[in-house]
Q: What sequence folds into this?
């Protein structure tokens, strides 16, 4: 089974990322990590390959330095990677990203594409559906479990009151949630060492036959107009004391504000 | 011919009989050595003077045994009996050579002295054996294992001593008093009048019984725990000489290496020797906080587990192996197969859960009379589980990731590292700013804050108190601020050597850049790692614990705590007299046991007016862990009862109102322990710096 996992480097979620004057991420301000949601997809891919055999390829669109971040995902056990990188892509919108990833997928052989629900920096959550649409793949989202049989994939699609069982023929694209895998595995040192010698193939827009004017920052369908920090939240009040006293205090607090 | 020997019927058979015993012993030992040959060679012999010193201290004087005085005396009497009766045995199997040499000068006075000594030693050993049997069979202390083999060994020792006494007694009765053998001569007096032939027969019987028991002892020795009489000398001599708080380095760049300890074959000679030296005395088990709280970890069972694996590996091997030429023939290779030493340690010598139960407090290592080293091996096993298999309690994955990404196990951004200084009435200078201003050389001491004090609310209060003390003393200090990261201690002790070396290398680089004259820290874990482990990465820094630094400031008169009569703190008497408080000091393992810092926290506490110190039974280097060491701070404690609850119980037993600590992890554990304990109302955990700062404020 050949699985492609879409992986995005994002600024460290505990860091203090800054935006540059161009309102784009100042990548020097925060070391990149693998988008945590994508790690669930990698974990799901590893489990499927452990059960059925096969290979996992990571697909990333990012600046050239992203190979370091990709190696962190390779260290979990993925077999190789493809990095689409081109200066013209700086400032690309979600739609452009989907087009580029779809074009890159077209050069790969695969049975299944897995991705996370959204990136922790952009947070749009639309690239996956865009890729599926552009590639003409069945799109199975919010998977709380993923099961593969011969030539079909079956998922539990989570929603507010329970789940639906969806099934599609392979190849297909599945958006994996944390519910499906719990915690992603921690890369062992043996895995980190093995990842060093795995091949990450670099592709430019020219390699994919895409016109920089059509998918790059210049053609972005969305633009950042301005940014401001979130409003400072009120101070936290910690309630201490015996259970009964604490409960009374909390009830009074809520009552004063007419929550109850 | 020596008369005493000539009296023994068939005496010429003594030497061949003894040689037979030695031969069996030698073959058994050679078979053990074949397992040693199959594991990792280790511990080359350097520092011979220090090693010889250790031999005298631990093997000859047996200082560790006297931690339990009665058992110590008992053991020493048996040990002395063995050595001294050994002279007699040597004499017997050399047909009186020893007596011939020793008895020649001074008209035989020296040999008479030997006989007297033997008499006394035999009686002493006999009493000790009787006491040991009472312990094994009647009083049964919890730490002892009750095996048949232990009783058999004791009975054999008793038999050897008794037969020696019997032989000398009957010899004196039959042939006349022996010069010097006062006790047996006296025992012989009532026997006078019995037929000489009977006395001579009994003498011969005892004499041969004595030798037979010695030979029998030699034959069974290699298969019993009593082998320590041979191996403990080597084990003590080959002991770890590096600071006990320094874990061995691991080359994390070697692609083909096994990281850490996976199988028997990955152990070093000393590790294997530990197994062959263990006497199952149970001192480690008695000292172990994990065992005391009902967890699967039993340090003795682990060490014996190593021995069992080794025993299994050599099972079925020929006593006399085929020669190398024969071995090359088909079917004639009788060497130790690689699979025999490939049995995994996890579930072979120690259970997976037990590996993670260890708090690395080192109480077992401290307690062991024959210098067995448990902790390094447990961390070695963790290294293998983490670095090769990613197999560890799932709750520590976030701590690993946080240390790797954010440089601290809490996963907090470095930008908040100085939040603890907010609201202080004095500035806390940052080394980078001072360096930029060119005033870094004025700094007396670099305060290594540590992640706990930077991110944990309770520990932040300790940092504020300590900084207040520094400010009050007019100490010119600086902190690293955002440039500081986790020392790496938790990562290393949880087996993640890769993350440890990453963090430590970066810290060594940062510290070198500023070249502080002295580093002070309120965290014993940072203290131990910087002092004992950073030298492995090329960083030699002078580092002191804050209790020692404060004690020095007090001794130098730079800090003057309020004298009795001026304390106006809460609870102070209306007449203005100092508030009287009872305080017990809970020693941190990495401070007291690993680094011998015991007097300093007490000096600080003692300098505060109105404090009465009440010690717990387990204090100083015998301290009982709070439960947070070895990375247990970041693990759930689901097995057994909670270690901090047990330590809190011990603290409350003293009746103290304050539990003084010198470690942020101990602070968390003792605070939680007191909050959960019955009858702990009003009892608080305070850092020694907080106790001192209060007295300064009040003054």
A:
């Amino acid at each position: 089974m050949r699985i492609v996992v879409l992986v995005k480097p994002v600024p460290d979620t505990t860091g203090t990322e800054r935006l540059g004057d161009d309102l784009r991420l100042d990548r020097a301000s925060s070391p990149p990590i693998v988008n945590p949601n994508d790690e669930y997809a990698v974990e799901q891919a590893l489990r499927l390959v452990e059960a059925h055999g096969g290979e996992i390829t990571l697909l990333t669109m990012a600046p050239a330095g992203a190979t370091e971040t990709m190696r962190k995902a390779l260290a979990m056990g993925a077999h190789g990677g493809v990095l689409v990188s081109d200066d013209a892509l700086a400032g690309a919108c979600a739609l452009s990203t989907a087009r580029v990833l779809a074009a890159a997928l077209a050069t790969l052989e695969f049975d299944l594409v897995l991705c996370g629900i959204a990136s922790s920096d952009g947070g749009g959550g639309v690239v996956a559906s865009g890729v599926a649409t552009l590639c003409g793949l069945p799109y199975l989202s919010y998977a709380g479990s993923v099961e593969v049989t011969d030539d079909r994939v079956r998922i539990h699609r989570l929603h507010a009151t329970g789940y639906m069982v969806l099934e599609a023929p392979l190849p297909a694209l599945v958006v994996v949630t944390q519910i499906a895998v719990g915690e992603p595995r921690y890369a062992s040192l043996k895995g980190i060492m093995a990842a060093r010698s795995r091949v990450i193939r670099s592709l430019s827009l020219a390699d994919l036959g895409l016109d920089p004017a059509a998918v790059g920052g210049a053609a972005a369908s969305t633009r950042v107009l301005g940014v401001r920090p979130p409003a400072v939240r009120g101070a936290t009040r910690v309630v201490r004391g015996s259970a009964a006293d604490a409960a009374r205090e909390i009830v009074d607090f809520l009552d004063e504000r007419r929550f109850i | 011919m020596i008369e005493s020997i000539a009296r023994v019927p068939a005496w010429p058979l003594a030497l061949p009989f003894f040689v037979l015993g030695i031969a069996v012993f030698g073959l058994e030992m050679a078979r053990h050595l074949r397992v040693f040959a199959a594991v990792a060679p280790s511990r080359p012999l350097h520092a011979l003077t220090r090693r010889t010193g250790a031999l005298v201290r631990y093997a000859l004087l047996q200082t560790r045994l006297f931690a339990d005085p009665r058992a110590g005396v008992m053991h020493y009497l048996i040990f002395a009996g063995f050595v001294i009766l050994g002279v007699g045995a040597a004499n017997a199997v050399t047909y009186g050579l020893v007596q011939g040499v020793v008895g020649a000068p001074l008209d035989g006075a020296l040999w008479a002295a030997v006989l007297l000594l033997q008499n006394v030693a035999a009686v002493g050993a006999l009493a000790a054996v009787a006491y040991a049997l009472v312990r094994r069979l009647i009083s049964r202390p919890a730490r002892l294992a009750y095996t048949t083999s232990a009783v058999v060994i004791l009975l054999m020792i008793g038999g050897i001593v008794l037969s020696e006494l019997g032989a000398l007694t009957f010899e004196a009765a039959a042939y006349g008093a022996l010069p010097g053998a006062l006790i047996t001569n006296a025992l012989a007096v009532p026997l006078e009048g019995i037929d000489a032939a009977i006395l001579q027969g009994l003498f011969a019987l005892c004499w041969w019984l004595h030798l037979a028991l010695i030979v029998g002892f030699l034959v069974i020795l290699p298969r019993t725990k009593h082998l320590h009489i041979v191996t403990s000398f080597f084990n003590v001599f080959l002991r770890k000489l590096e600071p006990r708080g320094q874990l061995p380095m691991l080359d994390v760049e070697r692609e083909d290496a096994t990281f850490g300890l996976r199988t028997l074959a990955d152990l070093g000679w000393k590790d294997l020797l530990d197994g062959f030296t263990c006497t199952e005395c149970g001192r480690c088990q008695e000292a172990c906080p994990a065992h005391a709280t009902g967890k699967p970890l039993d340090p003795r069972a682990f060490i014996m587990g190593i021995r069992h694996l080794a025993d299994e590996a050599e099972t079925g091997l020929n006593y006399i192996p085929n020669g190398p030429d024969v071995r090359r023939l088909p079917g004639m290779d009788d060497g130790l197969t690689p699979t025999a030493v490939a049995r995994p340690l996890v579930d072979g010598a120690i259970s997976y859960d037990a590996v993670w139960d260890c708090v690395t407090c080192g109480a077992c290592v401290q307690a062991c009379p024959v210098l067995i080293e448990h902790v390094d091996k447990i961390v070695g096993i963790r290294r293998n589980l983490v670095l090769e298999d990613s197999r560890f309690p799932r709750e520590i994955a976030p701590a690993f990731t946080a240390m790797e990404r954010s440089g601290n196990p809490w996963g907090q951004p470095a930008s908040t590292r100085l939040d603890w200084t907010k609201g202080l009435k004095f500035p806390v200078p940052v080394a980078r700013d001072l360096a930029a201003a060119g005033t870094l050389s004025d700094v007396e001491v670099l305060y290594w804050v540590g992640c706990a004090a930077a991110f944990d609310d309770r520990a932040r209060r300790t940092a504020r108190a300590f900084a207040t003390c520094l400010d009050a003393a007019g100490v010119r200090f600086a902190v690293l601020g955002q440039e500081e990261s986790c020392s790496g201690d938790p990562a290393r002790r949880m087996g993640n050597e890769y993350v440890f070396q990453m963090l430590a290398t970066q810290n060594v680089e940062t510290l070198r850049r500023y070249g502080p004259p002295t580093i002070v820290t309120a965290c014993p874990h940072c203290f131990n790692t910087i002092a004992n482990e950073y030298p492995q990465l090329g960083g030699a820094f002078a580092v002191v614990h804050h209790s020692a630094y404060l004690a020095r400031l007090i001794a130098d008169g730079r800090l003057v705590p309020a004298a009795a009569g001026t304390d106006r703190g809460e609870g102070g008497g209306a007449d203005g007299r100092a508030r009287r408080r009872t305080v017990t000091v809970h020693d941190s393992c990495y401070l007291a046991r690993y680094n011998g810092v015991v007097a300093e926290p007490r000096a600080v506490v003692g300098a505060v007016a109105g404090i009465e110190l009440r010690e717990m039974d387990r204090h100083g280097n015998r301290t009982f862990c709070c439960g947070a060491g070895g990375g247990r701070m970041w693990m759930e404690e689901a097995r057994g009862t909670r270690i901090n609850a047990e330590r809190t119980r011990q603290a409350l037993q003293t009746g103290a109102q304050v539990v003084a600590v010198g470690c942020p992890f101990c602070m968390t554990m003792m605070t939680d322990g007191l909050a959960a304990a019955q009858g702990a109302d009003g009892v608080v955990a305070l850092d020694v710096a907080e106790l001192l700062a209060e007295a300064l404020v009040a003054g």
Observations:
- The longest strand of chain B covers residues 581-585.
